[in-house]
Amino acid sequence: MKLTGLFSLIIVMCCLANVTHAQVLNSDNLRNVQVETLSDEEINTYYQKAKSAGFSDDQIFKMASDRGLPADQLTRLKERLSILSAGGSTTKASGTSQQKTDKNGKELSQEYAKPSLTKLRRDSTVFGSELFTETSSVFEPNFKIATPTGYVLGPGDELSIQVFGYSEQSYNPTVNSEGNIYIPNVGPIAVSGLSVDDASVKIKNKLAATIYKAIRSGQTRVQVSLGKIRSISVTIIGQAAKPGTYTVPSLTTLYNLLYLAGGPSDNGSFREIELVRGTKDFRKVDLYSFLLRGSKEQNVLLKDQDVIRIPYYRTRVSIEGEVRRPGKFEMLPQENIDQLLTYCGGFTDSAYRGMIKVLRVADTGRILKDVQQDDFSAYLPQPGDAFTVGKALNRFTNRVTLRGAVLRPGDYELKAGMQLSDLIREAGGLRPDAYTDRGVIARLKEDQTATSVSFNVKEILDGKQSVPLMKEDIVTVSSIFDLKDGFMIDVAGEVRKPGKVVYRDNLLLKDLLLMAGGFTEGADLRSVEISRRMSDVDVSSQTYRQAELIKVDMSAGLNADAGNIALKPFDLVLVRPRGSYERQRSVTLVGQVLSPGQFVLESSKDRISNLIRRAGGFKSSADSSAITIRRITTLGISAEERQRMIENLLSINRDSLIANPELRDKYLRNVDFLSVNVEKIKDNFGGPEDLILEEGDYIEVARASSLVRVSGEVYHPTLLPYEPDASAKYYIKRSGNFTSKARRSKSFVIYPDGRAKSVKRFLFFKSYPSVTARSEVFVPSKDQEGKKGMSTGEWIAISSVIASLATMAVTIVNAFK
User: Fold this and answer.
1) Is 377 exposed, middle or buried (CB count within 10 Å of its CB: 0-12, 13-18, 19+)?
2) How far lies 738's CA from each of 143, 652, 657, 746, 780, in Å?
3) CA–CA distance, 172 with 51 (Å, rounded to integer)
């Protein structure tokens, strides 16, 4: 059953004066109604008839519900009536852009549907396209505005008539297709074609002449206003993004409709949009007038059956480079480059304004043309022209530079006929330290080759010599200090602030020592030595003097007469330490001893055994078989050199060395790593294993452990329990065995005392070394990257390491000989 049945029943009830809306009709009448099956026209017609009968919306909807209309259909009916009341359309039809939901899928109830522009692919370089993007709301319709002055009524407009005073009544008549409104007991009133003000006067007179006589006496008043506006149908054709027929409110303007239609397409014209009204062109619209000046003169109100035609653009050019708004612009006939520069915002600050390059497409191919600034107004762009504005050269045409011993060095303007003397005077003149015998000008010739011009500074200032300047000249006036070495004096040794001091005339030795902060506590004041450079040496002699040595006794203090020696440039003052002065030396003992901590060495020959005795001996948990000592290296070998030496000595690659924590900690640090066997020390106090301690030694006694570490190229590097009499091969197998990259013949064991022993070979047989508790079994990689022969210097360094670290060297040589 259609919804017409609903409104038919309502109309019947409205006509029965003595029947209320509570009367019960057949409850099945509206049970199967589908609101979606009805057109906007059907709903609007029957709704207006029900309203004319004097029923409110709430009464209409309650009677529909009482007759069995489902709740969801009643909700949909209210939504469609709300849209229709606002002048919109709820019917889907091809060729329109009206929609019932917003971009989130939510249904719109009291607003006109907004167009969805998210799927429109637009050329953003086209000037004006930004007005019709999803984020732009410049032309978005706004129907919540007051009725424009002079608005002319037409079919579909709804009026609101309020009668108050002696009588109280309200009417909401709609202008029908004949141009009339109908008021009960008054009759039809023709208002189509009248303004709201004129229609108001006519309605008041009609009411006063019929049912409201008190209007004439003023006891009853009438107010007439525009309620809901009518809908009009407008068609947009041609190169619009979304052409079609649009049903819109009568307050819609041309710009509003362009927004709803997505504006011109990429091929559409922005400047020759035509509004056709009736059988003739009503207006031609140029959107550039709004884009450039904000003018809305051409934004006229649309009328029913208007047609908007967007033609193809005729001439579109592009401009890029140093302009404020690069992009594509549409040009009208007779427009020149000056107009194009106006559209793109003009030149940037760094643009070259004297010429614009134009790339033009001709029948025979592309043509490149240079348009000079004087020809901008005469050059008419052609379709497809590509303009390029270059950047101004980063080169001065009137600059000269003055450097050196002048009061204000820097860049200066080159004026017509400017001489070198003028430039020096403009810079404030010379500094007192200026060298006046000679100056130099660095100059570029016309072919950009470099040349120099010399001059006498004194003669230039006296007017005896004249040198005209040229652009980009660089004038240099030297200082006398630039022409001599920087005079310095060195002070070193037992002073509080050693270093270099700038030489000054009449600088005395005691003044220099005072500037250096005085002597340290260990200084030998009786033997301060001055080493002075020889300026006249007979180098032909086999025993010529290289320096003059002056010894001074400063034991009487800094103010003693002995310090009144005038120093000379490049002197070296050396304060030696006293031979009898000795600072305390200390070592650190940590780990499993009874009293760990810092210990000051009592004598120059303190040994490990003395230190362990002073610490109270070992704890029961100590591993007394080996003691580890970290000693600061003194050989001056860098970490990289140490790494290369270890790689060559142990025949393992860099990756294996870095990956192994034991090797990395022992051999690649900035300290030497020593291990000694305590049992040998007990058997021979003061022997080779009982090492003499040095300043800064860090001695560690580890906790006893029965674990063995396996690392390197095995499938499962891990810690394993110690097994007496088991060889390295046993632990390698228990760790998953060798990987495919393992270099088996170079596997070795690192023992707790620092010794290293590798696999030995005899013919085809291999002998794996034995393993003790706290040892590490390491399997290197086959990769030989980074393995290089050692230089003579490295061999000398290795010899030094072996000589100074006897215990470690002997064990390594035994393991790899």
Assistant:
1) exposed
2) 84, 16, 17, 12, 10
3) 8
Contact between residue 315 and residue 382 where contact means Cβ atoms under 8 Å apart:
yes
The model's pTM: 0.45
232: tokens are 């009009």
Check: CB of residue 270 under 8 Å from CB of residue 264: yes
Question: Residue 96 and residue 718: Cα distance in Å, rounded?
Answer: 76
CA atoms of 783 and 142, how far apart (whole Å)? 77
Q: Provide the 10 A C-beta neighbour count for residue 679.
A: 12
Question: Residue 720, SS3?
Answer: strand
Q: What is the pLDDT of residues 481-522, one digit of tens each?
A: 888 777 889 999 889 999 998 888 889 998 899 999 988 888
Q: How confident is the model at residue 26 (pLDDT cuts 50, 70, 90)?
A: very low
Alpha-carbon distances, residue 568 vs 182, 504, 559, 695, 722 (angstroms) = 121, 9, 20, 39, 72
Sheet containing 355-362, strands listed edge to edge, beginning at the edge strand earlier in sequence = 327-330, 316-321, 386-389, 355-362, 365-372
Task: List CB contacts of 474: < 8 A, sequence separation 6 or more.
Answer: 400, 401, 403, 441, 442, 443
For the chain, the residue count is 817
| Residues 662-721 pLDDT 10s | 555 555 555 677 777 777 777 788 787 788 888 888 888 888 778 888 988 889 898 888
Residue from 216, 203, 302 nearest 252 by CA? 302
Strand bridging mode 280-285 / 244-249: unpaired
